[in-house]
Specification:
Blueprint (H helix, E strand, L loop, with lengths): L1 H20 L10 H12 L32 H10 L7 H23 L4 H5 L2
Length: 126
């Protein structure tokens, strides 16, 4: 049994020595910045939040008030009579008609301007 153990150990050391002998990688250099960064990350201990930290940020929840049902007027008949007695207001018909007439005049003036023959003096300069 000891001889088989010795054979396995010797074959393992030969395999390791062969792999090391044919290694072509350059010397591994340590990255100092990365090592410092990892060391600082491992040593970082965040401060625990205070127990009352949420007090100013969260408002207490309260239910909205229940809506009230609309109430009917107590004297509905008198209000309907007052509504029927009022005269409807009418818009001033003259004030509404004048801007339409002005736009017709402006439109007709524009059409007349477009239909006029071009000025011959204007084309002579070009």
């Amino acid at each position: 049994m000891s001889s088989s153990l010795l054979r396995q150990a010797s074959s393992a050391t030969r395999a390791i020595s062969r792999s090391c002998a044919f290694s072509t990688s350059s010397v591994v250099r340590k990255d100092l910045v990365q090592d410092m960064y990892i060391r600082e990350l491992k040593s970082y201990k965040p401060t625990p939040p205070a127990k009352d930290a949420h007090v100013g940020a969260i408002k207490a929840y309260s239910l909205p008030p229940k809506p009230q049902a609309p109430a009917l007027p107590t004297d509905l008949a008198s209000e309907l009579a007052a509504y029927d007695a009022t005269e409807p207001t009418k818009a001033d018909t003259k004030a509404a008609a004048e801007p339409v007439a002005e736009t017709k005049n402006e439109a007709e003036a524009f059409l007349e301007f477009c239909e006029r023959e071009p000025n011959q003096d204007h084309h002579a300069h070009h």
